[in-house]
């Protein structure tokens, strides 16, 4: 059922649908999910993990016989996208962890996606094969070479049906263009180019050309001791192929227009909110660092995530966001501890729903939050095995800030900071969400009435 | 990477720092200079730890360096206003933070911290151990810590980087002309193939979707024969060199020199094969 347009928070009841991954209490590091992304139709859902693998789930066709199993996602393809590498020149190990996956819009029967680790971007083609050629001249069906002297007839191989096989093949490898760690990739609306961003530079690629990239942003100072700011995320405008934004560790967003200059070091727009003096602390700058930036589907707004808040900006207003949502403000009084244990550097992502009316982001204790931009209502939900009965409705969670703790509330000090939800995804047109909780992938849907 | 003795010291230190951080967070009457000193020490410890890594995290290092700069600036302004020692309770300069150049951890571990672990609310007992443990850090120390870590992050760039097209003035980002031609040629080659493989997914859209290289069209078809070392002497003299199909014909092993009849059959077969190959490669 198509929901989303104008749907209000109180009308949507989120239910558990599926969970993927092991139940084992010990987590294998390689299984930790590092990125989640629906494709443009929502038919496919891809995850990348720390072990360099990509798993793609496909939504099954809805069947009239089992209407309650509204299009479950099942494994469609699994492949090893990146392997660990060793850079001999710098004596560095290059992690195979998949930082981001981005789908290309589908233009034929095959699916294409970009996956990247810290250094190398790869274009993968995922296609189905349900026929195979039979009747080779020189080999028999088992692949053994036939005795040439026994061959008396020349035949053309024919295609015969076979069991469906899904194969993933690397079509392009875009390597050796990033000295620093890649944090973002974004496909351009022209579908011919894409960009990859690392801490200090952004490169523009043409899908056809793997041995050249065009450097469009470079903020590396001549003297590294003068470095005070890094690039944290970047994204192309959904409709204007010449426009992109990138966020920084100082809480600023720059919008650039590639038509004005080849090297976009001068921004067209600069978004920054003046600091609130009452909230100033030693950690102000650290918590202002933007961990994710996303254009709305309409292209009129951008959303940014910093440590404690999610902000929505209107492209026409640079001096402050139009909306600010508190994700977990109760952590403001714990910043020193969170700095000490490095949690303050956790990079949470944020997503829009299909109609840009609701935004979602993760938190700790396997909590994730949704904010309805129209009604200004928000909800905290939890991804846990306890709430994982089929079609069980998720109960809103609440963190108790001080004073008396109610029965269902959890106190700040009881939060599990090792259970962080950094990556979530929202189906492009329906109320289906994918939430990555360490090594498990949860899929929730709204209740079918 | 760290010796076990150092690791144990570090984990003890981490536990102590955790206690101090909670003290920072929960206590409202902890003097500001002490809080600042605590944060500064944490920053410097982190930078020191990162320096020992082969590849420090650039993002975190910059954020921490900025925090140190912020504190440094504050302390400079204060010392300009009043020359008095900012933290009177802190141990004398002999405990000053050693330079970042020394390989091991040169920090003096906090003494007497263990007693105050669970008594964060008791401010008096908290303050004294903190004062005892926190070290004087000079302005120079802070500067050297910052520049040291940032210098480390100036990674040796690849000697021959991928050709990044250098913009000439305000040119639009363009890709070189010859690349355009290359794509053109490939597209021509594919047109013939498209007719034969109509049922495949080849479409008229962006060429990467068409499996640009010719080889890929034949992915499904076994071409290992042409790749193998096993090679019969060619029966027929080489055909006219203009044919792109010549290569496979040379190694076609079903032509056997043993009988004249076979030669005849081969000739016909080869010409048919020629014809087929011409269609397939669209020449």
What order do the strands of the largest sheet of chain A run in, or round the barrel if closed?
1-32-31-30
Indicate the radius of gyration of chain B in whole angstroms.
Answer: 37 Å
Cα radius of gyration of chain A in angstroms: 24 Å
- For this structure, what is the CATH class of chain A? Mainly Beta
Assembly form of the protein: heterodimer
Give the N-terminus to C-terminus distance of chain A in angstroms: 10 Å
Low-confidence stretches of chain B: 85-127, 159-207, 209-213, 227-260
- What structural class is derived from the secondary structure elements of chain A? mainly beta
Q: Which structural category do the helix and sheet elements of chain B fall into?
A: mainly alpha
Largest sheet data of chain B: none
Describe the protein's architecture and organization.
The complex is a heterodimer of chains A (449) and B (283). With 449 residues, chain A is an all-beta fold. Chain A has a single domain, classed as 7 Propeller (Methylamine Dehydrogenase, Chain H). Helices cover 2% and strands 41% of the residues of chain A. In chain A, the strands form nine sheets. A four-stranded antiparallel sheet of chain A has the order 1-32-31-30, with no helix packed on it. In chain A, strands 2-3-4-5 form a four-stranded antiparallel sheet, with no helix packed on it. In chain A, β21 and β22 form a beta hairpin. With 283 residues, chain B is mostly helical. Chain B has a domain of 48 residues. Chain B contains ten helices and one strand, in the order αααααβααααα. In chain B, α2 runs antiparallel to α3, α2 runs parallel beside α5 and α3 packs antiparallel against α5. The longest helix of chain B is centred in the first third of the chain and has 24 residues. Chain B is elongated. The two termini of chain B are 62 Å apart. In chain B, 22% of the residues are buried. Chains A and B meet through β10, β14, β15 and α2 of A and α1, α2, α3, α5 and β1 of B. β15 of chain A pairs parallel with β1 of chain B, so a sheet runs across the interface. Chain A: Keywords: Repeat, WD repeat. Chain A: One of its GO terms (molecular function) is protein phosphatase regulator activity. Chain A: InterPro entries: PP2A_PR55, PP2A_PR55_CS, WD40/YVTN_repeat-like_dom_sf, WD40_repeat_dom_sf, WD40_rpt.
